[in-house]
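Thread: quick sanity check before group meeting

JM: Hey all, I'm pulling together slides for Thursday and realized we never actually wrote out the predicted structure for the chain we discussed last week. Dropping the sequence here so it's in one place. If anyone has concerns about the input, flag it before I start.
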Amino acid sequence: MFGWEGDNPTDDTTVCAKAREIVEDIEAGGIVLMGRNVRHDDLSVTVNTLNELQSLSREPLLTNCDQEGGMVARFVEGVTVMPSNMALGATRRPDLAYRAAAACAEELKAVGINYNFAPTIDVNNNPDNPIIGTRSYSESPDVVSEFGVQAIRGYQDTGVIACAKHFPGHGDTAVDSHLALPSVPYNRGRLDEIELKPYRAAIAAGVSSIMTTHIMFPALDPDLPSTLSKKIITGILRDEMGYDGVIVTDSMEMKAIADNWGTPEASVLAIEAGVDMVLIPHTQSTQRASFEAILKAVKDGRISESRLDESVARLTALKQQYKLNERRFTDPKALGSLLRTNEHLALQKEIAELSATLVRNEDEVVPLGPGVGAVVSVIGMHGTVPALAEAVKRQWPNANAVQLEGDRDEVMRQAMAAAERADAIIVPVCPSEPWRAPTDQQLQADVVKALNGLGKKLIVVAVREPYILRRFTEVKTQVCTYGYREGSMDAAAALIFGKIEPKGTLPVTIPA
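JM (edit): ok, ran it. Output follows.
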């Protein structure tokens, strides 16, 4: 499964040469769309692109993206992006995981996607995990299992192939496998109890595919990461756990793999380990080199044709199960009636409101009820300041946004000047995020501490992982939203001003 470099074409009929090469020349079995490949301002272009690629392929293509909900979504405009898995966990309503997945699947099918790399069923029990966080339902393997199974059924009942990830588990790492090779040091008993438990539930629920992760598990294989390990892929997942569905790698261009084995050699190792589909989303030269390496390995007898036949049989069966040959093409004219329906938007709102969590309210600042004319200022360094301020204005018109920028002295000056004019202060806070300019965490904490020292009503809103609230123990009013896509900021503002009851419950533990 390959993706293509560069942006989507600018018209409705011509697919860029790199995308055509993936299908016509290399004959990949699947196409993965990254955000760069989606025409967000006109999704019909994306539909027509996928239709043309399907027409060029001898076999129906698996068309795929990562549409997890929350902050991981490739389609972000013109569709309904559901709140994150952790937001769902905070609702304590597994039925909502089913409904959210089904709604997502309906919209993915409308744009020509038949396969989603979701749900993430990692058990996030490491507060310092830099890459999973709100992508996980909970720190509890039982909760993750229950919600994950419902999501799998929601996708697959609606006709979209689900993918449980990242096997055997990426929840207890403090290293991002995009950037380096993590290691999980626990013994087999602990792995069975925590990491592997959701996968047993997913297999029992009939999950159609499972994605591997590029992590060392010395208790399972002291020499190779899970993606490349025959002991883990064939020995544990296939033979011991009895899984006979499709196994796909995570991106083989991630540094955990590319910097240690090189993507071409690692692609061969993955197939030797028992993987069915190698995922290389980004670089054309790397895709070509990996294709040639696999072909050479077969010609040299390193990979037997029977090993490939096993995977081809699984992939063919998957395409037949979901009737992909009959569903190759999508009507771009139908998008208006299938995307962002009233039902889906209402569900998005329901999840956001049920998940919004009042973590602390020791001074009973919430619900906020300032007197007539009182000013509420939304002050902060994170990019959510304008969106949260707009949501607050819908509850209290006399509100303003102050986006803090500049060096340390300037940021502190701006914060104090804005606070002086405010009667109540709301501060969105967020850890440094993957693929975004990092937020100075110490400066963010110092700003909050200075604002707290003014003695005014102060509310800190964790707009992503709740773990960041451990940096603000002096603040006695804390809210968490588990993400900041559409709906989440409105839910936070509604909670703060008492328009909704705070019903969300933390699905993870915030360290003292």
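AS: nice. The domain at 356-496 is CATH 3.40.50.1700 (Rossmann fold). The chain is about 40% helix and 10% strand.
JM: adding both to the slides.
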